[in-house]
Predict the 3D structure of the following.
Amino acid sequence: MQYLVSVIDDKSNPGSTDRQPAISAFNERLIAEGYWVFAGGLADTDAATVVDNRGEQVVFSDGPFVESKEYLAGVWVWEAPDLEVALKLATEASKVCDRKIEVRPFQ
Amino acid sequence: MSDIEEAITQAHHEQWARVVATLTRRFGDLDIAEEAAAEAFATAVERWMAEGVPPNPGGWLTTTANRKAIDRIRRESKRDDKHKEGQMLYDDDPPEPLGAIDDDRLRLIFTCCHPALALETRVALTLRMVGGLTVPEIARAFLVQETAMGRRITRAKSKIKAARIPYRVPSAEDLPARVSGVLAVLFLVFNEGYLATGPDTDPVRHELTAEAIRLTRLIRALMPADGEVAGLLALMLLTEARRTARVSASGELVSLDEQDRGAWDADLIAEGHRLVRERLAAGVAPGRYQILAAINAVHTSARDVRDTDWSQVVALYNQLVRLDPSPIVALNQAIAVAEIDGPDVALAAIDRLEDKLADYHAYHATRANLLRRLGRSQESRAAYDKAIELAGNTAEIAYLTRRRDQLGT
């Protein structure tokens, strides 16, 4: 089963910025143990553009789709047998990233 | 109640969790397991009334529930589920184990008490899936709307399915942490029964305390070596033993020192004491529930309140504070200290807790009592007022109001 693992950062109380080496090492392990499907960090929410073409004319607007103090800073996709395994990895991931982690299964 | 009705009630108590757990293992789906179990019990009511109770009620219920589940899957399955259906209908598991350790039920309890679910959801789901309480019963117990409680349980079941929360007993390394979560759920159910909140409920909800004890007994049978399980069971039994003496005929709380000790349930006390002694003999450092049980064992050993061994109570609280340095434990410690060192020492100790406990009714009730004993009536009255304002239990409010009104000026 695949899980979307979101890294949540906080604008007013951000996590530390020196996590990259630790995250890389963690990724190596995820790959070696067969959990890793995909991962990517995201640029700041300033760089987001929302496209809405549901009406007559397409509208481009700045910013993420929800305005909040917390925002999505990066994602993983993991292949794990069940939530228990995913939560165990997420527990480590939160420490490694120094950020909150959301684990959500794909449908 | 007729013999048959009694047999059905007893079968519901004894077999519900077993039937749901067996079906959950086989079909891998809490919804199917629960609905089929409910149908099987409904069928039992009809058939047993007409034909008598079968020789093996548990086996009868499991077989019937299995058949109901298969009917349901056949009715509801779509083409692409046929393969899965084929697998489900073929039960290659060994026949239901009847030994002391029934892993299926233990797995069900750990699934319902999974840490990925909110605590209140764990409580509701455990009462529903393991305890067999109906959704309206659970909603009433926690004073929420039936529809809201129904939604909460449905959401929890779909999260278990969609996120794939496993149906298993956690691995040895995770077990202690997960057991404490299970015990917290059961203690919450017990406490809600013992000190029910809300103006329209009975001050003591016996159906909840009884259910919590029943489920804790079940865990105890499944995990006999766990000291904290034994401790929690002892704590509940020693508390429950005093239930009838705790509320007066007029619905007022009777404090421990004023209770009629002859009205305590001697059997429950004997059983609780046995468990506490068993834990002492084990020689393993006790956890929180074991210490709380030991404190209650000291109280229930005294034939008269004047015989209470307060120095032992204080020693046990000192032990508890090291394990759990929460302000509520410190408050209870101070109450015991008052009996040895006097109310002024205790008052000084609890005044230091004000920041943390300003919104907790028991803090103000304790202060009011100590101030009363020190003859500081006016301050005592103000503390009683505050306690009454914050208390949620009707019997407790009645008690505090009387104590306040007895104060001289």
